[in-house]
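Before relying on records like the one below, remember that each one covers exactly one chain. Contacts with other chains, cofactors or solvent are not represented anywhere in the record.
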Amino acid sequence: MATQSQKARFGSTLKRLRADRQLSQRDVVHLLAQQDVIITQQSYADWELGRSLPQHRAKVFALEDALGADGQLLAILGYSSSHSDADDSAAVGVRDELRALRERLDRLEESRSARSGRSSGSRARRD
């Protein structure tokens, strides 16, 4: 369990790293999304304000990568700077599941588009 001091240090370090790179919070959220780490801008803001911390170490690794933190964020939370095999396999599983869900959503959207195109076309023929 992280202390309030760790949360505050994590948040101030996160904010400094982001500001040093002249990024907005939204920019960081988008950089994380490119790594298949999906968070809300509110969650990110809460991290910077020291209200909460990322719940999974994989998110901290993604932040490290996105902001070029060189282990600073990991050190504050007492994590080693290398992934464990368990973390890697869990992250791969989550990424695979996310990709499958995205593909399913894309197929559903394509199907809806095709149906709406057919129904508007059939209405036009009836008129």
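Confidence is low (pLDDT under 50) at residues 122-127.
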